[in-house]
């Protein structure tokens, strides 16, 4: 059945912006109703004139480590097909960020990375990108489940009606994590198994490189994903302290682990993600701090420095993408 053009137009061009506006108004309303809002704003302004500006500089510097780790992952994955330089991998990753800003669930990252591969070999890298994404998702699930365990008491005190849903979500996520972990470390066996039963091997070349992935290599990719996850948490700790959200680092790590988990399971586009991130952060961090303004500003700041700034750099690399692809 053909979908009417008006419905397509709504879902492609209007739904995302409408949700973004709705979430933004919701966050603004919670910030406006914050007790001592004026005092919080004065404290935040004073941070930019004090030693606390160092927290922001630290968070900005971590951007390059964050995407550097992702580029290292990509270099290791692509090197199983063809050699690639680290700087080329870095450019491919940032170009992917530029594409992902307006496409759902970061699928644009695959497009940007493929453009740095030679013609005839681009489709092979899709399966490599998926393996890298699964590794990052495993890290998100693992630390998110740990965060849920630590915050169980506080969440159920604040939302006592959600006891059954909490148990369902917690054990459901554990089950999904176990299945995904098994699939990840047995990906070569999965490819071999299906290759024996497929009637046509026409598209087998797209995943044939995965047959050589062993546990040691996959563990290395997972560890890089986990270290990158830690960089995200350090950024949040620094920016929360910049905006006077005086909460212990342990609580921040657990809360943000649950926030990252929520973002992983809720489909969205990058431009909408800032609203979702802010909304969930306000709900959870609000259990430990009344500084809604600081919490909201932290979400926007991290979103800007981790996504918008790298996306702008990525667009600069895309200017010469055709020239680069011929030389590479």
In words, what does this structure look like?
The protein is an all-alpha fold and 328 residues long. Mean pLDDT is 77; it is low at 322-328. The N and C termini lie far apart (44 Å). The chain has 13 helices and no strands. The protein has helices at residues 5-32, 37-47, 53-78, 86-100, 108-114, 124-158, 163-185, 187-197, 215-242, 249-265, 270-285, 292-318, 321-327. 34% of the residues are buried. Helix 4 (86-100) packs across helix 12 and helix 9 packs across helix 12. It has one domain (37-327).
Please give the structural blueprint.
Elements: H1 5-32, H2 37-47, H3 53-78, H4 86-100, H5 108-114, H6 124-158, H7 163-185, H8 187-197, H9 215-242, H10 249-265, H11 270-285, H12 292-318, H13 321-327
Helix pairs in contact: 1-11, 3-4, 3-6, 3-9, 3-12, 4-5, 4-12, 6-7, 6-9, 6-10, 9-10, 9-12, 10-11, 11-12
Number of helices: 13
Strand content: under 5%
- Name the overall outline: globular
pLDDT averaged over residues? 77
- How many domains make up the 3D coordinates? 1
Structural class: mainly alpha
Secondary structure: helix percent: over 70%
What oligomeric state do these chains adopt? single chain
> Spans of 5+ residues with little confidence (pLDDT < 50)?
322-328
- In whole angstroms, the N-to-C terminal distance is 44 Å
Number of strands: 0
Summary keywords:
13 helices, 328 residues, disordered C terminus
Short recap of the structure:
The chain is about 75% helix and about 0% strand. The chain has helices spanning about 5-30, 35-45, 55-80, 85-100, 110-115, 125-160, 165-185, 185-195, 215-240, 250-265, 270-285, 290-320, 320-325.
């Amino acid at each position: 059945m053909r979908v009417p053009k008006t419905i397509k137009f709504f879902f492609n061009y209007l739904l995302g912006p409408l949700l973004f506006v709705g979430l933004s108004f919701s966050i603004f309303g919670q910030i406006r109703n914050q007790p001592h809002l004026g005092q919080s704003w004065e404290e935040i302004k004073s941070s930019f004139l004090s030693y606390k500006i160092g927290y922001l500089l630290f968070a900005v510097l971590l951007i390059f480590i964050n995407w550097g780790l992702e580029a290292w992952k990509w270099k290791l994955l692509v090197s199983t097909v063809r050699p690639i330089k680290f700087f080329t991998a870095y450019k491919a990753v940032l170009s992917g960020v530029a594409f992902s800003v307006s496409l759902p669930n970061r699928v644009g990252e695959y497009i940007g990375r493929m453009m740095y591969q030679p013609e005839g070999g681009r489709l092979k890298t899709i399966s490599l990108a998926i393996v890298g994404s699964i590794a990052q998702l495993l890290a998100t699930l693992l630390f998110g489940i740990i965060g849920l365990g630590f915050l169980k008491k506080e969440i159920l005190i604040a939302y006592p009606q959600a006891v059954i849903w909490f148990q369902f979500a917690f054990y459901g996520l554990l089950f999904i994590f176990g299945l995904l972990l098994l699939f990840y470390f047995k990906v070569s066996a999965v490819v071999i198994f299906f290759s024996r039963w497929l009637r046509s091997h026409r598209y087998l070349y797209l995943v044939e490189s995965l047959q050589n992935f062993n546990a040691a290599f996959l563990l290395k990719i997972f560890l890089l994903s986990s270290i990158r996850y830690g960089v995200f948490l350090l950024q949040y700790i620094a920016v929360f302290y910049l905006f006077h959200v005086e909460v212990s680092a342990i609580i921040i790590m657990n809360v943000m682990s649950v926030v990252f988990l929520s973002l992983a399971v809720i489909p969205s586009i990058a431009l909408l993600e800032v609203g979702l991130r802010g909304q969930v952060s306000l709900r959870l961090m609000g259990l430990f701090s009344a500084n809604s303004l600081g919490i909201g500003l932290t979400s926007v700041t991290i979103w800007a420095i981790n996504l918008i700034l790298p996306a702008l750099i990525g667009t600069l690399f895309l200017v010469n993408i055709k020239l680069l692809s011929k030389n590479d």
